[in-house]
Structure formats: structure tokens, C-alpha cells
Amino acid sequence: MASALSRKDFVSDQEVRWCPGCGDYAILAQVQKLMPELGVARENVVFISGIGCSSRFPYYMNTYGFHTIHGRAPAFATGLKITRPELDVWVVTGDGDGLSIGGNHLIHVLRRNVDLRILLFNNRIYGLTKGQYSPTSELGKITKSTPFGSVDYPFNPIAVALGAGGSFVARSIDVEQKHLGEVLKRAHNHRGAAFVEILQNCNIFNDGAFNDLTDKAVKADYQLILEHGKPLIFGKNRDRGIRLNGMRAEVVQLGNGVREEDLLVHDETNLIQAFLLASFEPPLPTPIGVFYAVERPTYDASVNKQLQDARERLGEGDLQKLLRSGDTWVVH
Amino acid sequence: MSVPPEGVHSASDETYAKIPPPSKPVVERSQVVIRFAGDSGDGMQVTGSQFTAESALAGNDIATLPDFPAEIRAPAGTIAGVSGFQVNFSSHDIFTPGDEPDVLVAMNPAALKANIGDLAPNGVLIVDKETFTEANLKRAGYDSNPLTDGSLAKYQVFAIEVGKLTTLALRDLGLNNRTVSRCRNFFVLGLVSWLYQRPTERTVEWIKNRFRKVPSVMEANLRAFRAGYNFGETTELFASAYKVPPAKIAPGLYRSITGNSATALGFVAAAVKSGRPLFLGSYPITPASDILHELAAYKNFPIYTFQAEDEIAGVCAAIGAAFGGAIGVSTTSGPGMDLKAEAIGLAVKVELPVVITDIQRAGPSTGMPTKPEQADLLMAMFGRHGESPLPIIAAATPADCFYCAYEAVRIAIKYMTPVILLSDGHLANGAEPWLVPDVSELPPIEVNFRTDPNGFMPYARDEVTLARPWAIPGTPGLEHRIGGLSGEHLTGNVSYSPSNNEMMVRLRARKIAGIAREIPPTEVYGDPAGGELLILAWGSTYGTVREAVDHLRSKGKSVSHVHLRFLNPLPSDLGEILRRFKKVMVAEMNMGQLLKLVRAEYLVDAFGCNKIQGRPFKVSEIVNRAMRALEE
Fold first, then answer.
1. What is the ipTM metric for this complex?
2. Whether B235 and B267 share a structural domain
3. Best interface-test mutation with B: which of A18, A82, A92, A299 has the largest number of B CBs within 10 A?
4. Which helix (H) or strand (E) holds B576?
5. Which of A55, A276, B293, B389 has the most CB atoms less than 10 A away?
6. pLDDT in tens, A36-60
7. B308 with B188, same domain?
8. Residue B358: which domain range?
9. Residues B308 and B198 in one domain
10. In chain A, which among 59-118 make CB contacts under 8 A with chain B?
11. What is the b/e burial string over B238-273, where b = at least 16 CB atoms within 10 angstroms of the residue's CB?
């Protein structure tokens, strides 16, 4: 049944109400396009969100959806996934929802490795509340709540996810449709908590935050596309690469004795390397793609296995026997 | 207190067969209250629990009150570190752990100092004499030794060298001093078991089982227990032993149950009877954690337990599970309730069945975590932003927690609503005998998931209950979105229509008000047709109020008792009942919260009887306040 579905089947009857030009439209379109390709029955798909612009997402998906409260979507999703492990549960959150008010839930859901897809739309600003700085806004950022510039050191979402023990950590960009689609597909195929940071442009309150990464004229010089097993090469002419210099990464120009074999090769299973890539700041390029992907037991499967083992060992629980257990005596 | 009938025997006399016949005279008593008190490391909770188990086997009615410090190990020998366990056992029906102990066992000076004020005049005081050293006396804040300065003259004092006698009994076991010292509580339990002629086999079995992996410790505790028992028999200190005959109790299988245990079992029963898995999302908090511990053990039942990262995640996960068709439950105490408020409000709006259990403790803020209070009622009623009514059910006794937890789930599912279940620290840790029900007698809990896509609308309502359909993910054709934004009638689609918002607020309020149809006619204990004074109460004050009313009625006073299980909605006959009485007194462990509700709801000039000390009422406190009201 699922194979017969098309993108249209995943479009809900609700009018999409993001600001015209918002990066969220591109993400929504990509997710709706991807859904039929995943081979999951529509009734088994659930989108759960918190509060913020990104969190309106479930209303526009013709699947099951739950728009919850600020920052807590991972907790709702955890309860659902534990009790209904067969469902395909997606969490949609933002930089404020997921990293500020909901930071605690995000790190714990990653640590537990609950089998969820977590899409964090990072526009480095509070949009729904009309333009305050967020936990990913850069130092010195002038916003409504920081008229003299932010003195608030930002989070690096990828590093947070890796530090929290995420088993799948990736980054893509709203307008990089093909790349985003591939990353989301990878995330979907991962068993465990799949964290995807999606750099997303807020054209109203933080327009152009990722211009370097999206402007066709220059983006190849700023993006570093990660591919497992391949050397880290970037640039319009694909003539620059990343080389290790001790524990540090440096940009090198290929040629003049610098060969591809000298470059760092991407290894998704190498946590230390993933941290290194997460730490890239200009003048190093911004990595996009899968930073880290390993398999480890998922929380929901482990919980259900304990229950199943107990049933096999002890038999199905007998309520009457349970009530009559403990410290009992008979009065005649 | 009313005088109970003496010498009613109904339990099997076989239970007495194993007790060695006493060589000393045995005096019969109808009721005894004992409090065991010692340092928190002295094992007083175990001692009290075992004495309770022995008394249950002896066929007595029992009620207990553990009282322990919030600190796991407060400095040894200090008042702050004193842990106590009070047990009331009787040959007749009892409702409370007793106002004042007849017997106080004090394992050190601090325990004596903290508890002596409660001991009844001429009460029996058993102390471990050896602990009354200068250092310990100073630590407890004594200027002189109460054992020698005459300050204990109005009590029957038995100063016993517990440590020395225990050491003697264990001397050839080659144990270190610390291990020997830790057997002192079993010496005392043995002694008190002799004094009240308790059957000892349950304690012997318990010790054997508890210490089966360490045979030397098992042997030491068994010997200490036996030595204490024999000491009572042979020493000339005690002229007689006492016997409390069995109470007249309905036949059947009983178990001793605490409120928290009963709550856990109520949830298990609801899961089994509804055929739906139960999901508990919880964060450890005193005094609610035992429910999490207990449910976590029942893995062969359809019970999921999730120790969340915080209180908020606990309830959110429960709501997420309810969205998926499980019974969502979250257990907590006051501070956790504060944190869960926003999520509970969401559950009100999206109309999903969850039960939030608040084991109330003394506040505000961290307050006194191990002490009971009933001051969360108004928070349960109103502690969320916006108009967000929900049903509130309060348990009256430890065993009643079972039925209330079960009922809370039943109501939550039938009406598709979050329910708040109120218990408190007194019920949570207090125990009483529970006549275990037959599972088949429990009311059914029907779950009807919507499966038909034809005409499905997520916020269409049942004509009678006004409940919306439970349409769970995985059901083809019912894909829909729910959320906290104001939603349109029937479709649930986001709507900012002013009139729709008011209609939805009123619809949900009507749904909750309609739950009154589930409440059986209110029982008026005393004068159903009306009288001088009605005492209205709820929650754990049940036993105390009932005993106070019995006492007042035995003196010819026209005093009645109504005890509420549903705090929201209130029973539909309550207003009319209140008007039958000249005076209405609301007894509760807060500043007058139910009082405010009934005054507002019924325009009745009720007055309060209040206590906010982290301790249950004494029967005498209710009696005195009622007497004053009758005389006014």
C-alpha cells in the first residue's frame, strides 16, 4: 500500500502559514517528497513537535501528528516509541526549542538512543517570538533582546549531539534539496536516535545567516561535503582539502606535492574525528553530511526485550496471584 | 475514645499454637499503640514492620505510621536523625495509628527526647540504657540524664542494657562489634514480641529469608531475637505479658498494604482489566518513588516504567504513550506537580487519558519531604493557566489507594481526560490490612479505539460522556493532528475563532462536570437526615475523623461525617447534604482549601479545622475543635 503513495498523500489539508520565503517550506517539501520513498505506511508515521516556527510542521503532514509544548517533544516521542516501537516517529524542533528550553530532553533522548528521527531546524534566531537571539546565535549578535550585542556563547548543535552520545549525527541545509533528501533517508534508515541539524534561513529575523553556504557563487568554497571513506576535498575546483596537522585540521591546496592520499579520509564511525569536524569554524569550511553513524542498542527495543524476557521466564502476569502475594494471612 | 467491645475472637486459634505458653500472667488489652524510635541506622522501620506483620498474623486490626527523617543518614545520635515507626493493633476496628503511644521504645537519648512528649501518662518506656552516655546525652541536648534525674517519673521505665545482652547472646559467633550492634533492634523486637505475646514465626522466616546469603548474620539476628524474647520471659523486670485478642474481621485473604503499594497494584489491575499497557513516566521524588520501584518490578505484566530525566519528561512521556493507546501515568509529589503543570494543561486540551498521581508532602517548596500534608488540592484544581478543569480523586486509606488508582484510570479512559489522583505521605507509607478483592469483582474498564475512517473527526464527541474518540497512530485512514493550539470543534484544526474557543472551553468543562454521574450517592455517617454538626473531610484524614465522630457520638453529640473521594467534580448531592446540618466543619491538613471550594460552590458558612505540621491530626484535635463548635 505504501508504495502506491505519492508526495500529495503526505500533504495535509491545512494551509501552510510560515512567512513567505521561509526555509521551512523547502524542508517540508523535501520531507513530503521523501515519505513515499521510505516504504512506510502512512498511518504508521508520526510527527511530534514542540513550540516554535519549526514546530508547526506536523500540521502540514498528512500523517499522525502531535504539536506539544515547548522543548518537550523528545519526551512525548519517547513515551510513544517505547509503547509503540513499530511506529516511525519523527521529532521536529528548532534551535530554541531543542537546545534552550528543551536542551535537557534532547541530550537524554540522544543518550538513550531512542529510535527517533530528530530534525533540528537551526536558523540561529527566535522567529515565533519575533527576533530574540537563540542559543546558536553568534557572539555579538544584535537582536531585540541584545541591542548591544549578545555576550551569550553559542552551542554547536553537532558537538552537543555527539557529546550527548548520539549514534547518528548529521547536518544539511534547507535549500540543498538533494543533499537534504539523502541525509534524511540515511537518518530514516538508522536504527536509533538520528539527529539532523538543518541549517535554515529565517528571511524575516536573520536573513542570510547561511549565505556563504547557499550562495551558488561561493558555496562550494564554504561547504565541505562529508562522504564516508572519501578524502575531505572541497572548493569550486575541488582543489582544496583537509589535512591533519598533529591534532588539528588545516586547509591545504592540492598539488605542489600535496596529494589526495595526504588528506583526512572521512570515517563516520570515528567519534574523535566527528568531534574534530564538528569544531570546524571559518576559515575552515562547514561540513555537511553524516558526521557520525554507529549502531548500538536502542532504548525502546531494550525496554521491550526486558518485558518479553520476563514474560518468557515468568509467564504472563497473573493479576489475582499478584494481588494475593506479599505479606498475606487468612482470616476464617 | 470510645470503648470497644472486648475479647472478640474470630481468627483461627491455630495462629497461637506455636507460641510457647507464657509462665507469667497474661493481661488482656483491647488495643495497644507502640512506637519504635531510634537512630535512622538502628533499623526501626524493619522492627516496626515486623511487629506489624506479627500483629496481623495474630488477627488484630492494625494501622501504622512510619516517620523518618528526610536525610538518609543524619548525624548519629542527633534529634534530626531519629526515625520512628508507630503501630496501633487492636481487637476491634481501628482507623488510625493512634494519637499517643502506650509504649515507647527509645534506642538512644535523641529518640527519647524526640518522642517522650507523645507517650501516654503511665505509658511503658523501654530504653537502651547503655546508650545514655554523656556524649549521647549531650548530642541529644540533655543537660542531665533523664533516666536518673526523675523527669520520667510518670512513666513505667524499663532501662535495659540491650547492647550488653545482645553481645552476650552472640559472643561465640565471632562477629565484629558493628555487626553485633546492628542486631540490637531484633533483641528489642523479641522483647516486645514477648511482652505482647506475638506469634514469632513470621519474623523468624523473615530473618532467614532476608539474610540467607550471610548465614552468620542470619544466625546473629535470630539469636538476638530469641534472646530478647527469652529475656522478657525470664527477667524479673516485667511482672506480666499482655495479649490483644484478634479483631472481628471479615473472613478472607488479607495482606498488609501501604498506600504506595496499593496505588501501584491499582494501576496494574487497571492495565490488566482494560487490556491496555500501562506506561509510568516518573522521576524519583519522596514520598512517591516506591510506586516507580514497585511497578518497575512487574515486567511480566504489560507495564512500562520510564525513569525520565526530569518531572516534565515523566509526564510528557506518559502523554505521548497515551497518544499511542497506552494508559499514561505519572507519579510525583508537590514540587513535581509544579513542574508538570504545563503538560497537564496540554493533556486537558488534547483530551488524552493520563493519571497524574500526587503523593502530597509538606510544603511550600522543598518543605518537609517525608511528612504529609493536603495542601495541593487547590493546585490540582487550578494550578494550570487557562480554563483547564480535570477530575480529582483522593484516597482515604492505604488500601483505598488501590481502588482510587483503578477508578482514576477508568475515568481517564471513559472521559478522555487527565485525572489527578491525590494521596499523601501518610497514606503512602502507612499500612493497613487489606482484604484482597477478587479480580472479577472489579468494574470493567472499556477501551474502544476508533477504527472506522467513515465520518471520523478527532473532536467529535460521545453524546453522553462528551469524550472524544481515542484514535491511535497505526490506524489506517484516521491520520490526524492534535496540539495545544486552540482547536476547532469536531475537526480539531487550529482555530482562532473567538466563539469556537469559548465553545470548546465550555464543552470541556461540561465534560468534566458530567463525571458527577459516576459518583455514587454520598454516604453520611451519623445522622443522614441532618443534625448539629457535619465534619466534611477528604483524603488521609478519614480514619481520624471517623474515630473522632464515633467518640463524639458515644457522648451523645449529633456529629456526622462525610468523606469525599471525588474533589472534582463534587458529588451532585453534596450541596443539599451540607444544608441539612446546622454547622459544617471542614477538617484538612492545610489552611482551608476544600473549605474555600465548598464555601464558593454552595454558599455554605462552613468553618475549618486545620493542621499544617506535617503530621496527621490526632483524634483529640478533631474532637476538641468539634466540641468547641458545638458549644459556640
1. 0.98
2. no
3. A82
4. helix B574-578
5. A55
6. 999 999 999 999 999 999 999 999 9
7. no
8. 255-441
9. no
10. 59, 61-70, 72, 74-84, 86-87, 104-105, 108
11. beebbbbbbbbbeeeebbbbbbbbbbbbbbbbbbbb
